[in-house]
Amino acid sequence: MTTKKKVLLGMSGGVDSSAAALLLQKEGYEVEGVTLRLRPDTEPGSGPEAHGASGDIRDAALVAEALHIPHSVLDLREEFRDRVIENFAKEYAAGRTPNPCAVCNRYIKFGAMLDYALQHGFDFVATGHYARITQEETKDGKIRWQLRSVPSEKDQSYMLYSLSQEQLAHTLLPLATYSKEEIRKIAEQASLPVAKKPDSQEICFVPDKDYIRFLEEYTGKKAAEGDFIAQDGSILGRHKGIQHYTIGQRKGLGVAFGQPMYVTSILPEKNQVVLGPEGSQYSDSLFARDINWIPFDTLSPGEVLHCTARIRYHAAPAPCTVRSIQEGVLQVDFLSPQRSVTPGQAVVFYSDDLVLGGGTICRNPTDI
Predict the structure, then answer these.
(1) 240: closest CA among 250, 230, 254?
(2) pLDDT for the residue numbered 2
(3) pLDDT band at 153 (very low <50, low <70, confident <90, very high)
(4) Contact residues for 281 (Cβ-Cβ < 8 A; gap 6+)
(5) Which residues are designated catalytic?
(6) Which fold has domain 283-362?
(7) According to CATH, what is the number of the domain 223-277?
(8) At residue 54, does pLDDT exceed 50?
(9) Order of strands across the sheet that contains 235-239
């Protein structure tokens, strides 16, 4: 008799992870749901509503009950604060725009949650991400796990570029072959209580979208005013604090210039925000650090990789060449200039649907 493989499914209380539970059941897995307690204001014993206005823990528990699977809550607030929120605050203080979801995937959902799963007898973790995992046999007969994008407007391979071979080997992504519309239909046909629940578009620990207020409360520091400067160094006006701005921003600058002006650079060491006219927000190259490769282990010095790259979640893949210029740092040159290359965001490399890997965009090779 074959023993069913055990899967610990991360259940956010949304329709994607709820449908993932149903699909895994149909595939014959023994499924247990877990909702991660991440936000710093969710105290144990304070009830499911404390996780947020949407009652995510409550919703996940209701779905688990409907599917007759166990459900638990895993308190990872300390790990989440140390890995995700601290990074979020430090990146803004350094004049960069962080990508907290990618950091969370790397260290929390496929890090701490996977560690917990393996320690408690599970074979896999699973989530409701839209991406695909495959495997290939290498020339020396070893198995190499691959991450691939999916032909869906919800493709989330960009957010998973940092996963290791170990993480990919123990991960299931049951939504890989479905569209969002199909997933909602599956949830509705199964009468899941979250079938019509809208998708969340917020940073989970900043539910009111006021990240400036969050940063000021978290750090105990108010954003310091400074100078807007032109690309020649001349002063153009005053800004509200570098945390208020991101590369490519045009609206909300708070100063009239007589022509559209864009944020082209942020200089934290001088507390200055550099502005430029139309066209100045385009770049034909970037640097990246914290590199992770998936189909291979490294890019050798002098080796040139021809591929496509996405510089933000919803950006179209753009043809480029990639080379290692020093240990842990890449230079990426695009065939055509890219709009608003933003330090702190991820650059992710593709060959057709295969995710090659990626890293964190930085201002220069020494920007850490």
Answers:
(1) 254
(2) 53
(3) confident
(4) 247, 248, 262, 263, 264, 339, 340
(5) 104, 204
(6) Elongation Factor Tu (Ef-tu); domain 3 (2.40.30)
(7) 2.30.30.280
(8) no
(9) 235-239, 226-230, 272-277, 261-267
